[in-house]
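User: Can you predict the 3D structure for this chain?
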Amino acid sequence: LDDPAGNSFIESIGTSDTRLSKTLYERTREQLQEMGYNVPQANDTHTAATAAPPPPKHGADLPDHLRAANWDFSKSIEDNIDKRREEEESGNIGRDEALFFEVDCHHCGTKGRQDMCAIDIPGFRECLVMAFNCPHCGVRNNEVKAAGAIGDKARRWTLRVTDPEDLNRDVLKSDSAAVRIPEIDFEMQQGTQGSAFTTVEGLIGKIADHLQESNPFTGDSSAQNELSAFTQTIDDLRKLCSDPSCLPFTLVLDDAADHSFIGRRHPERPQEDDPGLTSEAYDRTEAQNDELGLLQMKTEGYEHEQPP
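Assistant: Here is the predicted structure, written as structure tokens:
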């Protein structure tokens, strides 16, 4: 097996398998090009950055607050300037419109477009919807992230799903949240799957799809007992949403950063009227703080430290 991407695998027998060897090597220029990376020519190292002239300009470089798209021509200039200043001071820029900026593509390394928009989830907090698109290699990605700082404590959401209406509850699962369903002995650790804003049914379906598509050990070379147990777990997840006889079951979201959320069945009613949903804040363990990088983070007195 010769895989330029490094995504192939052959199972070893025991800790020391003398008949199996693995060699790491630098990719050739042809391999990089076949994988879609933007590789400059060998003799263009110096000219690649200087040969391309800047695009011609049409008119003066106007700041954003003076562009026509940001002005209301039914009002005076003074009113437009005052409105823009109020938006800047209140931090409301970007909440009524999508912002975009250029970032490096994680696949080919060229510049791609990252769109970002702020939304408010009722009963929770402000979140960021982010979508990336690379015009060179076609890579696309979208993600929902909770805005704001890491919570003072971790939070555990517990939902008792008793009828199909509970499957339609809104769920925001961050990448720092662990998911547990005790009835089928299922647990997914934090960081296994990215953020998602969906419903209970959509979250369980995404987890099942992710396990089926991303796990490489479900082929004909897998041990039969391991393959059967894995496929049974996926089937059990799908049955939770399609088979009424699987009700009730319990869904637990345990987020060390307090960036996850399960919506109430009736958002306009108080929490006491929704006994199937509970939320518990608790102190993070040292291991959780370490995983979030809080033990190495210093927010006071860092300006006085001498560099190593």
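Residues 22-41+83-148 form a domain with the N-terminal domain of TfIIb fold (CATH 2.20.25.420). The CA atoms of residues 175 and 193 lie 6 Å apart.
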